[in-house]
Give the backbone structure.
Amino acid sequence: MATTLTSNSTAYDAHQELSRQAQWRADKWMLFGTFFIGTAVLGLIGLPFFLYGLSLQIRAAKEGLSVRPVLVTLIGYLVAVDAALNSLGWALDLIGNHTLLARVFLMSWGNMFDGGYFWHYNELAIGGATAPGEKAWVIALLPLMFSMRIAAAIGFLQMKRWGHQWLVVTCWFGVIAWTGYVANMTIFFDVRYSGVVFPVVGWWLYDIFYITPYLAIPYLHTVNREIFTD
Amino acid sequence: MSETTHQKLPAGTEPAFAGMHKWLQRGLIVCLVALVLEGALTFPLLAIWYGWPQLSLQEICSEFEKIRFADESRECIYPYPLFAPAEGQGQKTAQDVWGAQPRPKYERVEYRGLIKRREARLARQAAEKAAATATTTQAP
């Protein structure tokens, strides 16, 4: 009996160890890819690495190893990428607003899609976007919501219960952020869209792909939470 | 039968939500690819629309200053001094219809429009300078 139990637990431990190694091997490629995707401009370099890592994980699952579900992987990494890209733009706006990078690319994005990032840009003492309410959103969301969301995504990818819980919190936060941000743009419509190359539809076509939290929420509320450990 | 179906589902996905999870996964992959393409292509395409490489980045920056503050004398200072005041602080030339919901008066910039604006302005300034020189020469 004891011998049987020992051999079973050895086989279980060996399986767990193989699974852990397979997951880490896949994650190394995905982390590398995500790093580059998060820089925006080097995203095309990162995507093949990320997809290769994902394929390694899927292959490991087919071989019977216990790896993370694909949806958990996709949501975790995509939430991190979403937060990183937003943080890049808003860090430039909050801190780097007088760099040539910000004054050319952030303002040209503003001139093309969202006048809030062109109208009276760099006129406030703090610099950056001067559109009514915009700076408040940047200051509130950049160091709070997006940072918390990246931390939650890391815990979620580690299949931790707190990661799942905090991703629920920060993604619902995102619903509030989208609602308030879009309402602010609507109320100050003329500042945001007058003299803009591709107003409204252009902004929505560009920004709709940042709705990752809206895709995460239905999964977070319907996934069997037993797969996340304490 | 239900046990077999259950085994084919990913961990954490109950049969009732299998369809929804499948479509969420597809949506997430679309978002990932789109975000990567947007991130990679935004800067180059914006640069081309606003006149690069015919205009340098600093010239594009200067053209933006002239448009948003409606002042042709403004130039982009590069590199900007680290602890200097904001470049637009205290400006009085920007043209807006003010009120509870302000509206700017600048026009949209068409494709490579900054190049045309710059050339037109330089030509106009050269003509004005030539006219001023001719007037000065003619005056006794």
User: Anything to note?
Assistant: The CA atoms of residues 65 and 99 of chain B lie 23 Å apart. Residues 18-49 of chain B form the longest helix (32 residues). The first strand of chain B starts at residue 96 and ends at 97. Chain B touches chain A through 59 residues (CB under 8 Å).
